[in-house]
């Protein structure tokens, strides 16, 4: 049975679409992944608003297959750091291919993750393999990926910083946080203010011409 319908409530900024899109780009273009956090506190209500934004994401058949676990307890953060560093050490010293290590070298990362204790919050994102009442979910990775994009945008818009962290395999997160079997770890996102004097790699983003194509090439051979 289809749901009843309601009129769309549009977001109408007092700007032309070009100005609105351009302003949003200017905000998002300043987002950077941060690996040195301050221990300056962030109120839980900020986390609540950020997660509400993530929860506005579209999802396959509107199953909303995500859960965000906000961690501030120092003992839990410590446990997560110890387990993450064990996986990361294994990765950097054994599991990573030479090509992968070479790709990471410009970022200057290694297995030490002090920020997992310094940042006031860790948001651990889980994807649901089944809904909480055991029903199917669809396009889970796409749905949770979009929700995480909105989460990162909301963190940035709040004037805070984050890191998209993947200390894989991430099974330890479900164990430490006592999550039910239908929840699978997806991302580990420290959130807070950058440390005083925090620096980030001077990387370049692909120019528009490399990431945007229009219609199809004139001499396309694709059928
Ligand atoms: C799916 C994904 C996984 C990532 N995993 C890690 C990670 O485990 N550790 C880390 O330091 N950075 C990680 N990053 C951050 C990237 O290195 C970073 O986004 C990239 O260097 C671009 O920098 P920027 O986010 O400042 O634009 C990850 C990013 C993504 C999207």
Describe it for me?
Helix content is 38%, strand content 12%. The protein has 223 residues and is of the alpha+beta class. The longest helix has 22 residues, at 74-95. The protein is globular and about 50 Å long. The two termini are 39 Å apart. The structure holds flavin mononucleotide (FMN). Flavin mononucleotide (FMN) binds at residues 32-33, 35, 107, 109, 163-166, 200, 203. Residues 32-33, 35, 107, 109, 163-166, 200, 203 line the site of flavin mononucleotide.
Q: Which helices and strands occur, and which strands form pairs?
A:
Elements: H1 17-28, H2 44-54, E1 66-71, H3 74-95, H4 98-104, H5 115-118, E2 121-128, H6 140-157, E3 161-162, H7 171-176, E4 183-192, H8 208-211
Antiparallel strand pairs: 1-2, 2-4, 3-4
Helix pairs in contact: 2-6
Bound molecules: flavin mononucleotide.
């Amino acid at each position: 049975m289809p749901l009843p319908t309601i009129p769309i409530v549009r977001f109408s900024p007092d700007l032309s679409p070009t100005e609105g899109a351009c302003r949003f780009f200017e905000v998002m273009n300043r987002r950077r992944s941060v690996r040195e956090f301050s221990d300056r506190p962030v109120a839980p209500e900020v986390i609540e608003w950020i997660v509400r934004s993530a929860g506005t994401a579209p999802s396959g058949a509107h199953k909303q297959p995500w859960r965000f676990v906000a961690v501030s307890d120092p003992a839990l953060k410590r446990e997560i750091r110890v387990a993450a560093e064990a996986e990361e050490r294994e990765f950097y010293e054994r599991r990573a291919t030479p090509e992968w290590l070479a790709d990471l070298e410009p970022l200057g990362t290694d297995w030490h993750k002090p920020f997992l204790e310094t940042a006031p919050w860790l948001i651990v994102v889980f994807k649901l393999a089944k809904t909480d009442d055991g029903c199917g979910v669809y396009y889970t990775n796409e749905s949770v990926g979009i929700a995480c994009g909105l989460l990162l945008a909301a963190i940035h818009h709040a004037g805070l910083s984050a890191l998209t962290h993947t200390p894989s395999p991430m099974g330890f997160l479900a164990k430490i946080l006592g999550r039910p079997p239908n929840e699978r770890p997806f991302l580990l996102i420290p959130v807070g203010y950058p440390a005083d004097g925090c620096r980030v790699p001077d990387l370049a983003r692909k120019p528009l011409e490399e990431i945007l194509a229009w219609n199809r090439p004139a001499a396309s051979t694709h059928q």
